[in-house]
Amino acid sequence: MRTPLSEVGEFGFIDRINRLMISRPEGIIQGIGDDASVFEPPSGSVLLITTDLLVEGVHFLVESTSLRLLGRKSLAVNLSDMAAMGAEPLDAYVSLAVPEKLSLEDLEELYEGLREMAWEHRVNILGGDTTRSGGPLVINVALTGCSPKEQVVFRSGAGPGDFIYVTGTLGDAGAGLDLLLRGGGWPNEKSRFLLEAHLNPKPQVLEGRFLAGRGFPTSMMDLSDGLASDLRRICERSGVGALVMEEAIPLSDALRQYALEFGLNPLSLALGGGEDYCLLLTVPAQRGPEVERAFEGEFGKPIWRIGKITAEPQMLFLSREGRSLPLPKGGWDAFSCPQR
After folding, report:
1. pTM for the whole thing?
2. Hey, what's the torsion of the CAs at 292, 295, 299, 304, to 10 degrees?
């Protein structure tokens, strides 16, 4: 039986979900239950904070996912931001605007996913806010993190001659979304891989901290809006250009099969699909072989070199035929793109 939230009220709901919120008690003085949380920042580190807002009908479709997976993803996108800075995630704050269609059991399922993702990365959930929504479900997560000051990686450090790398295959999440919008009817063993890439992304926190801790990246960010869009952000912040090689862009077998089945261009999904949540970084050319060996030795998977940074502020794309073309524009934009 589904319990209306009106039966338990806001504070009754908080009492219900206020368990297993602390995965890392070190430095925590007060969590949920007071007007503010209180914690001791780690010694010798700077604090970072990031926040992401997810709105039903814009960033997700409730009918296309489970609330548990939605909870996981709501925190994962913030963890990915911390990974992009090379930081260790610390504490999360979750705020919800909840429509009447959702029950107490629905929100408990959402928090189950949030707690799972938090415990996987030793993150505490220390507070937030909850209110009623007359429209869609709205989820806002803020996340703190820490890092030695000298290890924080920004988007603005790329220099001419740097190699451009990504830490995962591209376009899988975009194909997963496309599959969902088609009703999920692709009887292929690869379909689960694509759906998982979209619905349950894996933030690369360990990879980000490893790369930053060894001083490899001159710039770094997570791929949330698509390679074509996100690489432009690095280049604009750094005052440089880029040359991307088509033949070097990593595509999974699942994406290639899906694109062939439905007549899609896998390259378009790789460049503009978004929500890959792997890392995009630049590394000095002389350290290229070193980062490639070190990354594969640490994680048992390759880091893919897909191009290089240029002094001229142009975004270029080298086709398989050897033609130099403008890098196609694209990527996710909350104000102009359809829902995810």
Report:
1. 0.92
2. -50
Domains and CATH numbers, the chain: 5-150 (3.30.1330.10), 163-326 (3.90.650.10)
Q: What are phi and psi of 282, to 5 degrees?
A: -120, 145
**Count of CB atoms situated within 10 Å of the CB of 174:** 27
Per-residue pLDDT tens digits for 306-340: 999 999 999 999 999 999 999 988 654 444 445 55
**Tokens representing 227?**
């390679």
CA 55: distance to chain centroid? 16
Dump pLDDT digits (tens) for 6-49: 676 667 667 776 777 888 888 888 888 888 999 898 888 999 99
Measured CA distances, 287 to 215, 278, 291 (Å): 10, 20, 6
CA nearest to 167, candidates 291, 81, 256, 269: 291
Amino acid identity, residue 196? E
Of 111, 115, 53, 106, the C-alpha closest to 78 is 53
**Does 294 score more than 80 pLDDT?**
yes
**CA 74 to CA 86: how far, in whole Å?**
20
